[in-house]
Amino acid sequence: MNLLERESQLDLMQGLLEAARGGTGSVVLVGGEAGIGKTSLVSALCERRGTMNLWWGACDALQTPHPLAPLHDIARANAVGFGTDIDTLGRLPLFGAVLTELQASPTMFVVEDAHWADEATLDLLRFLGRRLAQVPCVLVVTYRDDEVAANHPLRRLMGDLPRASVTRLQVPRLTAQAVEAMAEGALHAHEGLYEVTQGNPFYVSEMLRRGSEAVPHGVEDLVLARFARLGPEARDVAQLTAIVPRHLQGWLMDAVLAPSVAAIEECLDAGLLLARRETFAYRHELARVAVERSLSGPRAQQLHARVLAVLDGPHQARAPLAWRVHHAARAHDGDAVLRLAPAAAEEARRSGAHREAAAHLRTALSFADAQPDPIRAALLERLSYECYLTDQLTDALAASTAARDLWAGLDERLRQGDATRWLSRLSWYNGQTAASRVHADDAIRLLEDLPAGSELAMAYSNLAQLHMLQGQRADAIAWGTRALNLSIQLGDKEIEVHALNNIGTAQREGGDDAGAMAMEQSLRTALAHGFEEHAARAYVNLAYDAVVCRQLPEAQQWLAEGLAYCEARDLDAWAGYLAAMQACAWFASGHWDDASEQATRLLRMPHLAPISRIMALTVLGHLRARRGDPDAAPLLEEALALALPTQSFLRIAPIVAARLEAAWLAGGTPSPAEAITALASADLGSRFHQWMADELSLYVDVPRSDGASPLSRSPSCLQLDGRWQEAADAWRVLGCPYERARALADGDDDARRDALAQFEAMGAAPMVARLRRDLREAGVRGVPRGQRASTQSNPGGLTSREVEVLELLCDGLRNAQIAERLSRSVRTVDHHIAAVFAKLGVGTRTEAMAAALALGIRPRNR
Q1: How far is the C-alpha of 521 from the C-alpha of 508, rounded, in Å?
Q2: pLDDT (tens digit, 9 = 90+) per residue, 39-70?
């Protein structure tokens, strides 16, 4: 295959193939606009692979993607051991089976059109991409970069892959010289060709195929002109192929049209279609879409109905449910949609593709207006749960409310009560604690007059959970015990797991060691029975308790396990919550760059739950206050606005502590009003509540623990009592460097010098300035001069790290080079440079360099 201006890219990828033959695998992300030649480039690479196996799969442009479509393609074309198990194995066993086969022999694994990938496929790519370094495989992923926005799931995958194993290739447009060479090779005049096509290879080839000197308006004109020259039977073939995304199976064409060989050959000779093994496809997706858009509504509906009739008949076993739903919806066959879409949703759910499950349920509901209320209510309940799992809370609440109202209209009190209990859970997760409690009480009121069943047991456990989350330990244990006893009586393991989690968390918060055993038992049982949501919740509570009590190594263990579990199962809501907690843990342990990067990434997510957003805002705002950044206050204000409706000390107190500390660091006099309000709901029998009360007391005079209970002897309490060395030692053991330095700052001269060095190392500019001033006013000799003026005074509001990044940028280094110099990830450097641009009000690197010079910041090596 002769490709113009692609040789260097082919050589680079061929080098990766050679490395894979030697056992060092990698991922190649091939991006570019539609028609740019990604498939041609990868096909040319295939010709260079030698004896390596070839696995080739693609993602479909279906209304709702078929889960793991690329694996199904590979299983149809290759004798792979996992082929018959794709729809039956659990996600992690299946992914493990794929990896095992890749380890057996060198393989080139291609996944095309990842911009259409379902969540299960993206998780497969994430799973493999993190493990290919020692596997003889090159994983090539193509995608349209103009269809992958900042919030696209594929972007998250790109950020999650290890930088050392990933090569990114952007396929550029052809130069004018290359377009001229293509025209000369086709014996076609090249004048005006580059100006019209702008070097897009597909557009160029389409115009050259037209064989005319006239310049059409666009690719649709080119394709449709060729389509118009076909005979009637060939047009039927072309239209049928156009309504089937990606490719049309030969058996399906025969079953629907039974066309003559001459009609098929006419489409092939016209350059519209290509024959690939036993399938037919357009030369490019742009051409398929052009013909599909040209169809009238009735004609398209007729063709989709004919395809559905075949797929829903004797050939059912050969057609994935997602295909059948796609054609049923386009044929406006409501009965077929209502029969197939819920089944497709269940298939997607089993694959862990919860977003696709929700999409199928939405499709079913769009055809369900005339259905009986019980059917609609059941669909809405399923949709609410799938939206909840994927952090689409607004949709989850709307669906759940509609379902509850339908059950109420039918006077189905059992279903109404259960739906009301679920509304309570969703409301809490959406930061609406008062509404959550009202729904919880209403659910019990509706259910207690009915025979005791699982619905009532779950309503009890839900109320226990709310009490636990508010720090009301006695009520949490009491309601949790009622739920536990009833669930055991009913033999309902799922509710037993839920109740144990609530009881254990409340016990552990009070210092009862039995709580940890109950929580871990809840986790083990949830994992053993495949209760994904309850397992995720157990990970969250185990990690949260460890974070707030500063048991940071234990916290990181639970966080790592929980994130891996949730991300592998598309549990976005839980993964977001755990990621926010991970930012909290990094902040506490002094890994401020990691905490900042994580919190910033989360805040850019469009559907992050308020409860997770509160934590991310708090971390980022508190961190920026400690660094002296000017934009800390708005973050903490937003966090407080979200936290106040939760009525939760757990949510409000950390924000109040950060705001009080920020005011103190800025040289103001913090008001105790906020702190007293936050403490009003505090349960001082709780370790976290006592520690937070002591933290608030460092900055304002508020009621705090008396130190009589072992639980209350926080390091802050020791510091308040003047026992700064014991406090510093305690913070050191806990692995909290900022708090240790803060305690040392209350000590003798040597301790204060030690604190100053620690604050400078962390970039805690306000504490550096305050402590340096205090030392000089006290006449302490030998105070270090500190960082140079440009950094110390935060020019342009930049942090010390941002100044460092800007200096390297002024040296002419690219982001990847800066990341290597600072031993950070490229993504972290991207965030720093974005922050620098925003603070300096610039939009280009040249403007940033000019602004740096104006601030007195110079290149490092000049």
Answers
A1: 14
A2: 999 999 999 999 999 999 999 888 888 889 99
Instruction: Tell me the one-letter amino acid at 653.
Output: A
Degrees, nearest 5: CA angle 797-799-805 = 115
Distance CA 163, CA 823 (A): 12
Please state, as a whole number, how many other Cβ atoms lie within 10 Å of the Cβ of residue 298. Answer: 8
Distances (CA, A) of 239 to 320, 431, 679: 22, 51, 69
Tokens for 166?
């990933």
Separation CA 280–CA 278 (nearest Å): 7
Nearest-angstrom CA–CA distance, 833 and 827: 10
388: tokens are 């909840």
Return the HEC string of 699-712.
Answer: CCCCCCCCCCCHHH
Residue 134 per-residue DSSP state: G
Q: Give the span between the Cα atoms of 129 and 382, in whole angstroms.
A: 32
Of the candidates 1, 91, 102, the one whose C-alpha atom is nearest the C-alpha of residue 46 is: 1
Enumerate long-range contacts of 699-704, CB under 8 Å, 24 or more apart: 699/657, 699/660, 699/661, 699/663, 699/664, 699/670, 699/675, 700/660, 700/670, 700/671, 700/672, 700/675, 701/672, 702/672, 702/675, 702/676, 703/676, 703/679
Run of H or E including 822: helix 815-822
Residue 11, pLDDT above cutoff 80: yes
pLDDT, one tens digit per residue, over 214-243 is: 444 566 777 888 899 899 999 999 999 999
* Residue entry with tokens 């996992």: 82
